[in-house]
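thread from #wetlab-drylab

HS: before we spend reagent money on co-crystallization trials with zinc ion, can we at least see a predicted complex? here's what I'd submit
DV: go for it
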Amino acid sequence: MLAPRTNAYYAKHQQLKMKRGSASDQLCEGGCGGKAHDWANVHGTEDYVPLCVNCHREYDYGTTCPKGHDVKTYGRVPSGGCRVCHRLDDARRTGRSPCNVCGLARCQH
Ligand SMILES: [Zn+2]
Ligand SMILES: [Zn+2]
Ligand SMILES: [Zn+2]
């Protein structure tokens, strides 16, 4: 993730604004139903999602990823992304249909 308040950070946000518009024109993807405030980097990827201030803070320091997975229980990958999202992405590539809660094919959910 790019450190805030660096030129690279601002350049990235400027690019996003040009390509995808202002985050504040979009709905927050954190699931709160509110308006977004800023583009948030999806940990471990080059992707960005619009999030409000609360959901952004929740995502960066909280216990769930933007898709609602429990990162406190299932952990993060070394790059900081959600482990469940990672498992689901892997599974999708290989055509498996894993559990949406933990990302494993066989589980107790
Ligand atoms: Zn929100
Ligand atoms: Zn996730
Ligand atoms: Zn499960």
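DV: The longest strand covers residues 38-41.
HS: ok that's useful, forwarding to the group
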